[in-house]
């Protein structure tokens, strides 16, 4: 049956679609969590809109089954996916999801938008996202929304996991040539990719997606932790790029990077305890002295649920 405004227990769905995985959260109208599921990547830089819609539909069905509501169509579904900041892509995904009748009402947002909903609600702050790709968003005290980065894997995504993976390959190839010193990254990369020689990297890279390049980011962090100079240089470069995103928005929206600025992180590269996050938090002490870093993890799917409940007419 179809859940709607008259249903005593309407359901809402929040979807966080990234370049590595898609997370789906199913809740009732009060926000109580009924099911959480994860599946394949649905970022629009990675897959076509129709493929993303199929992945999302399948995961919603899985969540409904887990909640013992397999025949119920949710009242509202808010989908936040990487790449949906481009209007054409967002409209195409919305049309594909509406055609598949995943919910009575569907809203498609950029992934950072739903993450900001969870991090700050309606308040001001800067959100830095660094997973497969990278982008920063800010809500100014006057309500303006500004963006920095987010130009995609072929133009930008500086400081992202895919960016870091590509640069690791550049370092090991230069080391092989003798243009750079030897580095432990060489053996670690070959082991991670299950390749026998660096020559095998060429056909691998030709077929690689941003998501597969991003799989090398943990390798860089692991080697950096052993003291390898080239791996550490890559981590430092990554941190500088990410700090620049935050500082740019701090100046644009708060006038001065020394002002009190709430800052939140999202994305696998910035998970709590990660090497990049630790060094970025340290770097921001000088780059953005006013940064007040949120300790709690940002859950973009939870932010999508917050937005879905608002669309349902619930005060949140």
From TrEMBL:
The ATPase BadF/BadG/BcrA/BcrD type domain, residue ranges: 13-304
Source organism, top-level taxon: Bacteria
Pfam families: BcrAD_BadFG
Protein known as: ATPase BadF/BadG/BcrA/BcrD type domain-containing protein
Highest classification ranks of the organism: Bacteria, Pseudomonadati, Gemmatimonadota, Gemmatimonadia, Gemmatimonadales
């Amino acid at each position: 049956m179809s859940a709607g405004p008259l249903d005593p227990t309407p359901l809402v769905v929040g979807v966080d679609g990234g370049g590595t995985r898609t997370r789906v959260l199913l809740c009732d109208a009060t926000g109580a969590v009924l099911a959480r599921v994860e599946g394949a990547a649905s970022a629009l830089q990675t897959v076509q809109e129709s493929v993303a819609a199929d992945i999302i539909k399948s995961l919603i069905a899985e969540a409904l089954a887990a909640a013992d509501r397999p025949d119920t169509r949710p009242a509202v579904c808010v989908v936040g996916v990487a790449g949906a900041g481009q209007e054409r892509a967002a409209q195409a995904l919305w049309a594909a999801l509406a055609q598949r009748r995943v919910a009575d009402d569907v809203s498609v947002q950029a992934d950072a938008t739903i993450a900001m909903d969870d991090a700050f609600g309606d308040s001001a702050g800067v959100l830095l996202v660094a997973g497969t790709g990278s982008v920063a968003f800010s809500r100014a005290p006057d309500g303006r929304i500004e963006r920095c980065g987010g130009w995609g894997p072929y133009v930008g995504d500086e400081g992202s996991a895919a960016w870091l993976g590509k640069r690791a390959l550049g370092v090991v190839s230069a080391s092989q040539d003798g243009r750079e010193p030897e580095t432990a990254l060489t053996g670690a990369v070959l082991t991670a990719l299950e390749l026998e020689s660096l020559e095998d990297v060429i056909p691998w890279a030709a077929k690689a997606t941003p998501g597969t390049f991003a799989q090398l980011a943990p390798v860089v962090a692991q080697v950096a932790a052993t003291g390898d100079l080239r791996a550490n240089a890559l981590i430092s470069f990554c941190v500088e790029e990410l700090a620049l995103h935050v500082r740019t928005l701090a100046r644009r929206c708060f006038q001065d990077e020394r002002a009190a600025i709430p800052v939140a992180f999202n994305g696998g590269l910035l998970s709590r305890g990660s090497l990049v996050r630790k060094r970025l938090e340290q770097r921001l002490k000088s780059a953005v002295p006013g940064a007040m870093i949120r300790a709690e993890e940002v859950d973009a799917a939870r932010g999508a649920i917050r937005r879905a409940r608002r669309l349902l007419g619930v005060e949140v």
